[in-house]
UniProtKB/TrEMBL annotation:
Pfam families: Pkinase (PF00069). SUPFAM superfamilies: Protein kinase-like (PK-like). Belongs to the protein kinase superfamily. CAMK Ser/Thr protein kinase family. SNF1 subfamily. GO terms for biological process: signal transduction. This is Protein kinase domain-containing protein. GO terms for molecular function: ATP binding; protein serine/threonine kinase activity. Residues 29-212 form the Protein kinase domain. SMART domains: S_TKc. Its cofactor is Mn(2+). The keyword Nucleotide-binding applies. The keyword Mitochondrion does not apply. Keywords: ATP-binding, Kinase, Nucleotide-binding, Serine/threonine-protein kinase, Transferase. ATP binds at residue 58.
Amino acid sequence: MSPATGAVASAAAGEESPAAAATVLLGRYELGDLLGRGASAKVYRARDLLTGRSVAIKSFPNPRAAGAEKGRRPVAIEREAAILRRLRHRHVVRLHEILATRKKVHFVLDLAAGGELFSLVDASGRMTEDLAKHYFRQLISAVRYCHARGVFHRDIKPENLLLDEAGELKVADFGLGAVADGNLRHTLCGTPAYVAPEILSRKGYDPAKVDI
């Protein structure tokens, strides 16, 4: 990650492995359980040793590290960081800071202790209409805010809608996010079970309409 992205704390020492619950990252965050993993990152529960608050740590391989996968570029990580810095909304997972070592880049994020909305639906089989409307209002509030800030998610799905400890919705994972530039997009992205059909048309699409 380049210095231009700002707010990055670097360590000259090697990366501590986050496999053990007692691992402390850069003397600041005590890493706990693995909460999930995606194609390019792992997410851990962690505790801020200065404040005692619980957070989530999203860890990526550092694309600038010596021996990093050939052809890997820092653009995607920098884009996600830039997007998250634009967003401060009660129904969007907040980025608190970015830490980096030689081998890893870590996003410090809100901890959504309630897990995925997908898991809630999967466990209950269906929602009541009142509960569905409750979460839909929160989702639309978040999407409207993101679009007003020039940010498009492009992968909205129940697995990326998290719940905090109070059961309030948090939109997460802007790894496929895009920033407004006035042009149609042609990137094939999203999740097959949820992807908007215009993305698959290869004719170009409006990312705001894709989110809706």
